[in-house]
Structures are given as C-alpha cells and as structure tokens.
C-alpha cells in the first residue's frame, strides 16, 4: 500500500466502521469501484423493500390503491427533507433519465429553438434531447469543455458563452457522469434565469454525494436518482419542478390523474412495484446511523486521495490530473484520462475493462470520451484504500 | 351454498388442486375477488424475483449491463412463446398503460385527426388519448356502447359505425376493464385494416386470461400486462409492434439505444429493477404445472357460473344479466350492474366497497360507469365458489 505520508495531507479517510462491506449485498469476490453506475444496496434496504412487497402482495388493493397516498406521503416526507424540496413539488420516477424525459417531452419547442448542454452530458440525456429536437425542428447545441479544468468559473463561463437569443432550455448535470465534475449549478441557474432561460438539472449522482437543497438552487427542473448515492432500491428516483413551471409537465406515462397537478399525476403511473419507493426512507436511515455528513466527507476524502494517488502511481505512464488535486471540483468519484499506451492492452475500452475484471476481479468503468479513454473510480463507504491500490497495480501490470 | 343443480349446466369448476390459495401471497383473512385490478403473485414468483434481485445486487454491472441482453433474451423467449410474438418485435415495459403511452406519444397527429375508442376504454388510456389529442389538435371520439350486449358482432358494428375518413387510430381493449367484455379484436382489426386504419390494442387483461397469439391478430400495436392474469411480478408488461410500424415508436423514456430499433430501445429504459422481468418465465411456469388450458378454462367456467349465480341470487333486487349467460363474451371476470337501491347502502361506490370490506372482508371493486354502479368479480385459480356466495349474501344483507 502506498504510504499515505507521501501524499501530504491527502490521506485516505478513516473507515466509518469495521467491516462495513459486510452490510452490503455486493459480492466480496469483486473489488467494486463502480458505485456510480447503478449504486449498490445495503442488505437492510433490500430487506425493507421485501417486507413492503410482502405487505403489498398480501393486500394489493388496500396498500397501493386505498393507502397509496398515505404511504407515498410518508416516503416523500423523508426524501423531501433529504434533498430540500416540498412534498407537493415532486414525485417518484423510475430513474433520473425518466424524469429528464418527462420534462423534455412535456415542453414545446419551435423550429430554430436551441437546447443547450455540454459535451459532459449523460449519453441517455443527449439522446432524449436529440429526440425532442428532431421532432420539433429545434437544435441541440453541445458545447465542448475539454479537460483539464481548473475552476468552477470556467464551467460557468463556457455555458455563458453558449447562450443565445434562441436558447430555450439549458440542460446540465449536477455531477457529470463521464467526467465526475461537480458543476456549479446554482451559478449556472442564476446566469440563465437572468436571461429568462430555464435550466433542467440532471442530478442523477447528486442525492447522497453532495449536500442537496434543490429548491434553493432556483432552477425550473431537477431530476435525481435515489438509487445511486442514496442507495435506495433500483428504480427509485425523483422529479422536482418549481411550482410556477409545473402546469405543463406530465409523467412519461399519462394515467388516471392527468390534469390534477404534477404530484398527483406522478403518484400513479400505472400498476408498478412501489416497494422500492416505500423503502427509500430506510436507505436514507441506513446512512444516518453513520451520519450523512461523515458519509459524504468520507467518500469525498477517498476520491480526493484516489485522484492524487493514481496520478502519482501512474505518472510514469503519462496520467496527469484533469481537475484540481485538492478535490475541490469532485465529489465521491474521480475520472482520469488513460494514456494512449492502454490501447496495447485492449482494442476497445470494453476489452480493457474485461481484462481488469477477468484477471484482477476489478469492476471499474473504462470508456471513450472526447477522443480518449478514461477510467472513473467511485468511492462509497464500503470501499477501502486497498481497492484503489489494487487498481493502480493492475493497470501497471497490464502495461508491463 | 347455492345448489349448483339449480344452475343447470353452469356448475362451478372443479378446483385444480387442494388448497391452492396457500401457494399465493394474498392474506387469507380477505376474500379476494379483485384479481383483475393488480393481479396477485404466487409465492414462488416472488421468491424467483428475490433471487434475481440478490444476483443483480451482488454483481450489478455484470448482470444488468454485460449480461443484460442474454438475460432479457431468456425472459423474452418464454414470454414470446406464451403470447405469440417474435422476440425482436417486443420489449418489456412497466405496465400496459405505459406501452399505450409509448405508442400514442410516438405517433404524430394533425388537427382534425380522430382517435376512436369506445366508452368501455380504461380510464388511464382515455387520459393518455386526451393528452395527445389536446396537444396536437386531434379529437378523441368515444363511442357509447351501452350494456346489455348480445353478441361480438354488435361490438364490431358499433366500431364500424364510428369510423370516418378522419379516423387515424382505433384504440380498443382486448378485454375491457370496467365491463369485463372480450372484444372481437381480430374482426375489429380486419375491419380497420381494410380502411387503412391502425389499431392499438390494450391487452391489459389478455395474457393468461385468453389464449393469445398476438401477431396473428394482425394489428399494428399491442400492449399487455404480464403482472395481471399471468401473475408476473408487478411492473412487468410488454409492448409489441408489427415490424412495419416499429420505426417511429419509442419507449416513453428515451435512453442510450435511441434510433437502434424498438426492441433495443426497450431493452434499456434507464436504471431500473429488472428482477421482475427476469422472473416472468417463472410466473408462466407456475401455471404450467396445472396446464394453461385448464387454468383458463377453470377461471372462465367460474366467471360464467358467478355471473349466472349472482343474477339468480340478486334477481329480487333487480340485477339482470348484461352479457350472454353462456359466458361467450367474458373471460375470467364478470361485471354486473347494481340496482339503484344500492345507494341506500352507501353514498358512493367507495362507501359501498368499504362496507363490503370492513363488514365482510370482501375485496371487490364497485364503480361508476355509464351513469350506474357496477360490481366486477374476478376469478383466479385461488378462488373458490364460496368466495362469490359470500359476496351474494353480503350484498343482500346490506340491503335487508
């Protein structure tokens, strides 16, 4: 293991408890440093979901018809406190992409309208933007912001430079998926609101990674996953809309409560398994036993250390920092550009991934972005410094 | 118990096995004769889903990213055989309403276009039609077909009379939700296809209730639930589209595979719990142990008997048959019109429902339709004749 003293103040965090990984459902045979992709579940969360399912299946009509509003209300109250919204201004959706689709497909665009985003946008959201643009004659503008970046202001400036009189909507990630950057969404929203332009924030990675107070950001739309960094059951996400913007917004599945307001419409999107939504408060509570501030700080400190450690260990193969080494622009993930030489190890990012998985039991995403290969390391409380040391070693071994 | 001999040949069916209800998750304290609403689950199906969830959560990326296509392919193969489609022509969705929304929202309508349906339409689908009509300037035409009906031809004739040169789409239930009628969808499709009009069938109740061969019906679009009469986990449904009609149809949530074809697009609608979809074959297999033909026949025979028995027992309070007593127009549900006098028992259908639930532990839907109150009894293999005798008695006691 790297001696942390060589890293100055960038020490790995103290574990929040002993053997925390035993509380999780992940296979201990795999070194799992891809929490960012689908999250992961503490066993107690899955057990809570299973208890809800048993209750629902014992009396289906009573639970998800007659008592649905009360049960959703309880679950929403816990989520509302956690992310800083009013219960009447949001509802559960299956995933953040679905929430983004609900907004994009509800809005009306005219030929020539511009939908603005950046090249760090999540690919599914890119596709959803492309779809609504194609069918309305609007245009998607994707601003390139190459790495490295030095400051949040650089990101604000880049977006400011892309606004035009035809910009109708800005779509921005709170934390970007490929590049793991925290975008200064509050400043971006202020900038756009001054110009009368609405902002749709894709907060897929935000709840649980950053301390979130959605309503205070001031934007029009915020879609977020609870199954990623808050570790609720898969299929648990939320769509929040500022009260003055709710009227035209509908779920992607229109159902009985069409026309009765966004929260009512979202409360019934056809028959579905609501057990995950009902269990969401238990995911929030799981982390509360450690303290959410400590959890976020642990994961952020780990990501900051990982970024620096990997840059040190991989300096010889040409890996350089792409965001400030003090961790000021990242949360609990860090993305690094892999050197061209990695193409000797595999012909595609998938091949390189598969070698890391098959030969080292490492689960870590490798992908193309901006004409290079990148690797993203995620840090959740079940991870230990050894996980990332193993990654550092494995890449060097593959290149040796 | 009513002496079956008074019913001539309309005997209740012989149970498929002893104590079948023990295999189900329903609370035995409730007499559950509302299978049609959300279905119900055999315990083995929920256990299968839970095993899939354990596998997914142990290795999330491996299961729902790298192995997803294979796992979906296995699940789809079993479903495809069951409902008579090719795997490449359909995908899983959360519920039939979602599938209907995907089609309606993908199509383009012009001002003045007519979307035709009948007043037996499921309310959520009515709302989805209203939504796409409102935003395009199209019109929804809802043909009234009052009960009683005597023959399938009456239904075909009613729809034929509603077709105009402006009809762009006919939306019809295979089995209607409020009125439990089997619509002659093959004849309706033939009629419409001759006129160059596409038909979207809402088969919410069809898989498991009727022997289904979707592709042979010849329609353009078929959306169906697997969580209702096939008893797959909640949130398991399917959308099939005839090959020549697939190009413009997209899931309600656009994601990574946008533009790669309907089946590919449906294979990834954002992160979600796929355990229910993977477990769908085990729901089909559960019924196979009894034989699907026997299951359908059992449930149909029960519904036919229930319809006649209730009409006999309730003749004195003014309940009359609304479909042929030979059961030729129903599957495994029967709907009866309640007399005006029921309003003495409760001020609303919900109040009447609640009295049946609270005082008799009966779970059965009571609702408004076509300016009257109706009751719908569902028959699944866990039901016994006593369940419906209890209902017959309870209604008479409430009126006494």
Commentary on this structure:
- The structure is a homodimer of 400-residue chains.
- Chain A has 14 helices and twelve strands.
- In chain A, strands 2-8-7-6-5-3-4 form a seven-stranded mixed β-sheet, with helices on both faces. Chain A has a three-stranded antiparallel β-sheet with strand order 9-12-11. In chain A, strands 1-10 form a two-stranded parallel ribbon.
- In chain A, helix 4 packs parallel to helix 11.
- Chain A has 400 residues and is an alpha/beta fold.
- The radius of gyration of chain A is 21 Å and the shape is globular.
- In chain A, strand 11 and strand 12 form a beta hairpin.
- The two termini of chain A are 19 Å apart.
- Chain A has two domains: 241 residues, Type I PLP-dependent aspartate aminotransferase-like (Major domain) (Aspartate Aminotransferase, domain 2, 3-Layer(aba) Sandwich), CATH 3.40.640; 110 residues, Aspartate Aminotransferase, domain 1, CATH 3.90.1150.10.
- The N terminus of chain A is likely disordered.
Strand order of the largest sheet of chain A: 2-8-7-6-5-3-4
- Looking at the overall shape, the CATH architecture of the largest domain in chain A is 3-Layer(aba) Sandwich
Beta-strand share of residues of chain A: 5-15%
How many domains make up the 3D coordinates of chain A? 2
Give the helix level of chain A as a range of percent: 40-55%
Largest interface: A-B, 63 and 62 residues
**At the third CATH level, what is the topology name of the largest domain in chain A?**
Aspartate Aminotransferase, domain 2
What multimeric state do the chains show? Answer: homodimer
Low-confidence stretches of chain A: 1-8
* CATH top-level class of the largest domain in chain A: Alpha Beta
What is the CATH superfamily of the largest domain in chain A? Type I PLP-dependent aspartate aminotransferase-like (Major domain)
**SSE order of chain A, as H and E?**
EHHHHEHEHEHEHEHEEHHHEHEEEH
User: For the report, how would you describe the main beta sheet of chain A?
Assistant: 7 strands, mixed
Report the strand count of chain A. Answer: 12
Mean pLDDT of chain A: 96
Based on secondary structure, the structural category of chain A is alpha/beta
> How many helices of chain A does DSSP assign?
14
